[in-house]
Protein 1
Amino acid sequence: SDIKTINKFAMNYSEYINEMNIIGLTGTNGKTTTAYLIYQALNLLNDDCAYIGTLGYYKKEGKIMSLPNTSPDICDLYELIIDAYDSGYRNVVLEVSSQGLIKRRLEGIKYNYGIFTNLTQDHLDEHKTMENYAKAKRIMFDNLKDNGISILNYDDKESKRYETKNNIYYGFNNGDFKVLETTYNNQNTIFKYSYNNNEYSVNSSLLGDYNVYNMLSCIAVLTLMNININDILKNIPLLKSADGRLDIVKYDTNSIIVDYAHTPDAISKVISAIKPITKGNLYTVFGCTGDRDRTKRPIMMNIVTSNCKYAIVTMDDPHNEDPMHVVDDMLENNKNNNYEVIINRGDAIKKGIS
């Protein structure tokens, strides 16, 4: 019955999907921020764009509804795309999760652009091995339209597996869109990049190397859509990160930074982005998710305690797992003692602020 439902949706709505400019993003980290940047940019450029992903369903006026998954059920997904179509939208940016791909929640969707951000450890509770995880993401690139373009992170060693007949690369080390230099302070990032033998300067409010990757892939897809580069660069300073992505709250002479990082790679990159603009000590309040990949828990604990002055270990979303069981996993083989455990998250945050 599931296959019949999938075929029904794919057949009934294929003509609408084919008229839409579908931008799909997959990767371990960066999907949400990059998708949200593209969504904002196209709407600022008066090229109406809807967003479907971790943050929910958005149209140009803002959030319409929350969604239960990054990639919702196929029936819901098609209905959201058709809602955007009926509202006059011809651009949709989709976060494409590996779980959604293997569970066929995106069956029948054909993409104009497929963006690969990176591949690091996550979701091994679902995929069991990194090889399976990597193969799951390939499904999106196998469903590009005939003239579809793959936009790939040159600096990630896994990017080659997502090549198709039309490929564009971006990165620091090389690529069609190549970063030339970067400058950071506690308010913005300025970076230069080259494309087609021309150099461009970008001023962004997003901090850190990983946000340069996010911004550059956004610029790449806008450029490939033949949007005037001066219009693109004029609007980049107006783009904001999504809530919970390196949100900075000023507190007395300090900064409180809230971030969604929930993988070893993500939390390492957040710390790396914050350290250069931190004059004093870095304290981290964090936990690990219950009922998910247990192997990443001690890795994340080691990253935080090795790179911060002090850590306060607390509860993340435990799902159905005992929070103390999650903490026990985090402390396994831990060799650092610059931490304490406060299970109640509110109390942990208060201690961190104090």
Protein 2
Amino acid sequence: MTPQPRRRLLTIGHSYVVGLNRRLAHELARTGQWDVTAAAPARFHGDFGWHAAAPMPGERDTLVPVPVHFSRKVHLMAYGRRLKALLQQPWDVVHCWEEPYIISAAQVAAWTPARVPLVFATFQNIQKRYPPPFSWIERYVMGRADGIVAFGHTVLDVVASRGFTPRRTRVIPPGVDAAVFRPDEEARGRVRTALGWRDDAPVVGFLGRFVPEKGLAMLMAALDGVTTPWRALFVGSGPLESMLRTWAKRHDGRVRIETGVVHDDVPRWLNAMDILCAPSQTTPSWREQFGRMLIEAFACGVPVIASDSGEMPHVVGQAGLIVPERDAAQWQRAITHLLVSPDVRLDLSRRGRQHALSTYDWPIVARQHAAFFEQVIDGTLETVRRAG
């Protein structure tokens, strides 16, 4: 039997300048059924300075760095002629991980030949009225797209409200490396010893940006009311760091704040936690789009308490606890319940790990993308059915 030729995929995204963000491209190439090229900015100015695109050890996709302009403002970022020329090659499908209302998305939509299927991916899960030209760009891009990957059910609602037919949309989550993010008792012991925590007091953790919408004020208020023994570990950075440190001084060494943790080190810090709290707070212009820290905690076997902001109830499902985002009393009760209930924590740990393995592990997420791409290419898309 003659083997089927590998299909050619070009996937594009400014986030691909960071090697870990190209994991989807790597996993698709690793199947042996796809010839995958990932186009990333040669240099990109992110939140913490400049990044330069470089291959990762063992990366199976082909990385093509391309010039970009105005990368300090992602809404205004523009790709150069190198990407336009790359798009003229004979691709079976082009996948673009740029929000459909920004300038770079319009470029990809305009430069992809009409004969080539084009799929966009989006995290936008809140209704927004964009001013021109961004509203014009969104209509143009959505009109050109043959498929949309929605990174959540709340994202699907927004895509549908924009008039994009559900038949051409799939809800596919981001992924997590469940071999790297895993339960690790040795790492847990090392971190807690380095922090000087030699007792058995459970550790309440937070991982993310130190900004108001992530609910730090809610978490601090809840912990102030918890009377059972606890420690707290905050991993991240942001403008609320000073407020957080002022609060920590009132708790006599029970609180640690770590701001220099790179992503490769996140698994060991998660393993030092007994509970991860994600008390995100919805605002008029923002609600939690997904919550990557949730699936990373699940993979590490860390029990999760999350608010009901945005997509998080869908992400957590039955694998953790969901608490109303603005109910401080319920937050206090939920934290206390897990602190005094090691058996409940163990049950949630096992459920979370299984949830990560069955739903969010990168090979599973890559197979879902591959199946969608194949349907787009072959013209066999069916009406999307919602889970539950």
